[in-house]
Design brief:
Elements: H1 4-22, E1 28-30, E2 34-39, E3 42-46, E4 51-59, E5 66-70, E6 80-81, E7 91-92, E8 103-105, E9 114-122, E10 128-132, E11 136-141, E12 148-150, E13 156-157, E14 161-171, E15 176-182, E16 185-187, E17 193-196, E18 205-214, E19 223-230, E20 239-244, E21 249-250, E22 254-260, E23 265-266, E24 270-280, E25 285-291, E26 305-306, E27 312-321, E28 329-337, E29 343-349, E30 351-352, H2 365-400, E31 407-408, H3 437-441, E32 454-455, E33 474-475, E34 482-483
Length: 507
């Protein structure tokens, strides 16, 4: 009958024989017929899971204990010890077994990362290390903590740049990727800094990343995101933390003060003085609108209305009658936004004292300018017409003053009026008709008797005495000649004698 000790010996011998076959890929250390086999050579485990470390002894049964150490420092507290009352991190898989000294470590933490050794001691005082396994490298995969994004501690004016920081820790292994996104789109940033854990006992890591971006009015609704990618997050997706840029952004109001209708306004009409504070953020704004010369301020606070881009608008109005006393009055609008200095805007009211009969045509400087332009154009046109008329009259008068080289009288109404026989002989110009005898015997058409004296009365024009080379002829055909006794022609004056020599052609 075999004793328990004999069975145990045979089990160790079988283990020694099978070890080269089962664990050929692992190192086996021998010492005084003792073989220590650790497996596996390396292992990865997620933080929070259970770690199993295997150690099998083969060979001689030598008295002495077996302990597990993290690292090669034997002076530190072992992970597992078979001594009574020891506080062990690890627990034997099979308690009391003389060959299998495998242990388990529950709820693995990042600081559990490292190399573990199974060590055999020889009994004695003190105990002496007899042999040790080659070690098992344990890699603890720890997820990084939820990232934390920190921005400026005060609001930043639109148009300025702001810095943001993202941090995460407690992860293992060391490799990690930190990215920044604005409204879902990746933006450039400096590489993240990987630091050792602040805990002395932990070999986990922490990461910090910073980004600097410009802030604009359109960023009121923008989102800045810090994204973490790590080996421990495979199958779960990256970790993200979002920061609302509107929490640190300030957009100053655009203050506008105006009158309706625009100044100058018509006397004694109802009008509004309006102050607008537009496109500001956040909505913390106060407004005062009042006449500057008034003894008491009447605060007119409007209603804040949100805009589509996330900003706000504030509006206040004063309704009044445009009386003569209001002319040249000054109105003041004061806006205080987000504890910033006051924004002041002023306007002076001008009232048109003359009544406007045609109110439908509109008021204001633009209409007055248009009227003046129209009047100027009309005046210019009239001046041009007047100049043309004067030129035409001068040319017409000049044309009438020219002397004709030939005068032809065809009709009785064109004949000169019958002159009185008592006309002053000095104002009568006589025409020498030079009739030949044959012509005198033939009666002329339109003449009652050829034997009576015939003459033509011509209007005298003072001109120099004609010479033979400069004789003006008058064709007297169809002219009614006056019947009167022939009178001798007056003696012409030497200086200004006037006569007409008329030659009658034979027909």
């Amino acid at each position: 009958m075999e004793t328990p000790g004999g069975a145990s010996s045979r089990g160790l011998r079988w283990a020694a024989l099978l070890a080269p076959l089962l664990f050929s890929s692992y190192a086996v250390v021998t010492g005084q017929n003792i073989k220590i086999t650790q497996l596996p050579a390396d292992i990865s485990v997620k933080a929070g899971d259970t770690l199993t470390l295997q150690c099998v002894l083969s060979g001689a049964n030598i008295p002495g204990g077996v302990r597990w150490y993290k690292g090669k420092d034997r002076s530190q507290t072992p992970i597992y010890s078979d001594k009574q009352g020891a506080s062990n991190r690890g627990v034997r898989v099979i308690p009391g077994d003389n060959a299998d000294f495998g242990i388990i470590i529950q709820n693995v933490r990042p600081e559990d990362d490292g190399t573990y050794f199974c060590v055999k001691f020889r009994a004695g005082v003190p105990e002496k290390e007899l042999d040790s396994g080659e070690g098992t490298v344990v890699s603890v995969i720890a997820e990084p903590s939820q990232p934390v994004v920190l921005g400026p501690t005060r609001r930043i004016m639109a148009g300025s740049r702001a810095s943001f920081n993202c941090s995460t820790g407690g992860f293992s292994p060391r490799e990690i990727t930190v990215s920044w996104l604005k409204n879902g789109k990746k933006i450039p940033a400096a590489p993240a800094k990987i630091l050792d854990s602040e805990e002395k006992q932990s070999i986990s890591y922490r990461a910090e990343s910073m980004v600097e971006i410009p802030l604009e009015q359109g960023d009121v609704k923008s989102q800045l995101t810090c994204q973490i990618q790590h080996k421990s997050l495979e199958g779960h997706g990256p970790l993200q933390q979002t920061f609302a840029l509107g929490d640190v952004l300030r957009v100053s109001p655009k203050v506008r003060l105006e009158t309706n209708p625009p100044s100058p306004v018509q006397l004694n009409i109802s009008m509004l003085v309006t102050c607008n504070a537009e496109s500001f953020y956040p909505d913390d704004a106060k407004m005062e609108l009042f006449p500057k010369d008034a003894s008491g301020r009447k605060v007119k606070v409007g209603v804040k209305t949100p805009n589509q881009d996330g900003t706000f608008t504030l509006k206040s109005s004063l309704e009044m009658l445009a009386t003569e006393e209001r002319n040249h009055s000054m109105f003041l609008c004061q806006v205080q936004h987000d504890s910033q200095p006051l924004v002041n805007e002023s306007i002076t009211l001008f009232i048109r004292m003359q009544p406007d009969d045609n109110r439908n045509s509109g008021n204001g400087p633009d209409n007055d300018t248009t009227t003046m332009v129209i009047i100027g154009v009309v005046v210019c046109v009239l001046l041009v017409v007047l100049v043309i008329a004067v030129i035409y009259l001068i040319q017409a008068r000049h044309s009438k003053g020219k002397d004709s080289t030939s005068v032809r009288l065809h009709e009785a109404e064109k004949s000169p009026p019958v002159m009185n026989q008592d006309t002053d002989p000095n104002n009568v110009a006589y025409a020498d008709l030079n009739f030949d005898k044959a012509a005198q015997k033939r009666p002329c058409p339109g003449v009652e008797s050829p034997l009576q004296s015939e003459y033509a009365t011509l209007q005298a024009v003072q001109q120099p005495l004609p010479n033979d080379n400069n004789v003006t002829y008058a064709d007297l055909d169809m002219v009614q000649l006056n019947k009167a006794p022939k009178r001798p022609a007056p003696k012409a004056e030497e200086a200004s004698s006037e006569y007409a020599s008329v030659q009658v052609q034979n027909k």
